[in-house]
Amino acid sequence: EVLRTDLAGMPLEWIDYRSAATLYHSEQVAYACGSPIYRVHGGYNARTGLRSIIEVNSIIATRGDTHNVERTRAHYTPPLNNTTLFKRDANICLYCGLRFSKSELTRDHITPISRGGHDVWMNVVAACRRCNNHKGGRTPEEARMQLLAVPFTPTYAEYIYLKGRRVLFDQMQYLLAHFPRTSPLHERLRGDIERRARSLEPTDTD
């Protein structure tokens, strides 16, 4: 996936390489950063006989009116779905602290819907089926279950990260710079970046 930004460098969305190539071809790409990840071959020039090649980078900034995006971004509340919720909570049950696959997790309402709770980011956490069943229609306090982390509503940039299926090293670094300083995702993303950086270090050989 390619990370598309506006002219100011603010993350906008993930696009596939075909959409990115179209933006390059229509001269909508103002500048690119990150590393080249795709090379798209086009047709042959009838005059020169040369084949066109578009090199697509992992991050591209595109032209266009982004004032409406900038105005709404500060008040943006991302749509709530299980995929991004579980990724927000690192696929960890926030009651027992164990990591599970996405299919083994559920969306738990801290204050149950039946008790006036709402289906919003600040009232939901990832929970394994066992913990969710044990809690039932009670609050964590009533069920004597401790919540291991405080839920939060992702910002626009955080949500872009959570939506990414396979975020590359340079895209991680780029998105991290756009997270709020207080973002709970800072520590996790820095850890991922450090692990990837170590894996790229050359190995000494005799």
What would your notes on this structure say?
Helices cover 30% and strands 23% of the residues. The chain has helices at 17-25, 67-73, 82-88, 129-135, 156-163, 169-176, 185-200; strands spanning 2-5, 11-15, 29-44, 51-62, 105-109, 124-128. Helix 6 (169-176) runs antiparallel to helix 7 (185-200). It is elongated and about 75 Å long. The mean pLDDT is 89.
Rg is 21 Å
How are helices and strands ordered from N to C? Answer: EEHEEHHEEHHHH
Mean pLDDT: 89
Distance between the termini: 38 Å
User: What does the largest sheet look like?
Assistant: 4 strands, mixed
Q: Which percent bin holds the helix content?
A: 25-40%
Q: Can you count the helices? A: 7
Give the helix/strand layout.
Blueprint: E1 2-5, E2 11-15, H1 17-25, E3 29-44, E4 51-62, H2 67-73, H3 82-88, E5 105-109, E6 124-128, H4 129-135, H5 156-163, H6 169-176, H7 185-200
Parallel strand pairs: 1-4
Antiparallel strand pairs: 1-2, 3-4, 5-6
